[in-house]
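Chain A, query sequence.
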Amino acid sequence: MQYENLQELINENTSCRRYFLSQSPAVQVELHEFNDLIHSDIELHAYTCLVKKTSGVALSTGGSSCRDFL
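Chain A, predicted structure.
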């Protein structure tokens, strides 16, 4: 399902909200920078990997492999 943006996605989708909140506060803040570009769970995971890769954070995402997105 497509959502209008990240904010709607994490407000409406429980599993996406849990995934988002499982990230560090620094990653969460960076993800909000992409608010208008994130419309689905796949995009949330991909942008999380991107943020982690560019910030030097370990790429383990607790269930999804960043190799699928990078």
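The chain has one domain: 6-68. The chain has four helices and no strands.
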